[in-house]
Batch of 2 targets.
Target 1
Amino acid sequence: EDQVTQSPEALRLQEGESSSLNCSYTVSGLRGLFWYRQDPGKGPEFLFTLYSAGEEKEKERLKATLTKKESFLHITAPKPEDSATYLCAVRTDKLIFGTGTRLQVFP
Amino acid sequence: EAGVAQSPRYKIIEKRQSVAFWCNPISGHATLYWYQQILGQGPKLLIQFQNNGVVDDSQLPKDRFSAERLKGVDSTLKIQPAKLEDSAVYLCASSLERVGLGTQYFGPGTRLLVL
């Protein structure tokens, strides 16, 4: 059965304290891995798509990487406005989401 | 470019009542998806349309849920009758490419509370 697991469930960081979020997956026929950001009361906002092992994408303080079994979302020197839930999703014939990591960055 | 629009944003009903949600995708997007997101979980796909045809509704509880996409643009999702466990956020998404390809862009969701 296709499965996506995100860890940790919740993460509290001080402003400027870099860290990484993990997304591990077991799927057959991976056709892309997606990262989304979701703020309270809003729909998921697209961040990155990764297609093959070794691929990396960057946007401001965020960097996503992909291996054959997992993806990492690295957050460098986070700011309070980075506080959100980060969702990972893998695509087979449909998008399968993980349960997300709730990130809180406090000043 | 306007994003995915959904209405209403919030809905409170009693169990056994019916409810309908509306979605207008990004202009030109052929593929439309409905997801259910229960509090603390990731979105779960309910149904996906390619233009006005259903591609996958394997996870849609068809005894109470129905969806249509007339003319290949707007879509409605209906629940009749609602149960307590249907309390969730219902998200609509669209993508430019055909099903299975492309990035999905999400609307703000409709928050449903069933009492």
Target 2
Amino acid sequence: DQQVKQNSPSLSVQEGRISILNCDYTNSMFDYFLWYKKYPAEGPTFLISISSIKDKNEDGRFTVFLNKSAKHLSLHIVPSQPGDSAVYFCAARAEKLTFGTGTRLTIIP
Amino acid sequence: DTGVSQDPRHKITKRGQNVTFRCDPISEHNRLYWYRQTLGQGPEFLTYFQNEAQLEKSRLLSDRFSAERPKGSFSTLEIQRTEQGDSAMYLCASSPPDRKIDGYTFGSGTRLTVV
């Protein structure tokens, strides 16, 4: 029973363009949604979050959109930079965090 | 405070041996979580503590796994009679009492290889 899904295992984007990472969920009890960035041999690092009562949250180059009716959220990174290359995990919180399977983002210089 | 600390960073063990990992959370955090991550997967929840009480255990946590947080500070995760399928990255995280959403902090993990 996978409550949080990231259907794209990988994504390649040209430097300077927009990166869009997607995430779907099934549990309506989640109160927050988060995006984490992960480099090899390190733990996940918090990037940005959104409350379930909001539809958009922006922090610099990063914006997260939430569509509750579709149970879908997305992370937009613009402009994309080479340092953004990493694995991105979507997570959702009830009592604990539940993670998706991740999307490997590669920014092409 | 230097964040969540996990020890060791890497562990190679022979099948059938017991291993123990340690996690030191951020000092003011009362909740502590253990996750396991295998290749190509996201972190999978194993168990969590609020202070010294273990509040939830995943079905992934078989009888060979046990976790403790005896004084509500550091935690240990022990795996008995290790199997090759236990090879994974074991991640620890902690969160503050106010459950502030950006307060969930992960350690760098312990990579276990069972040979």
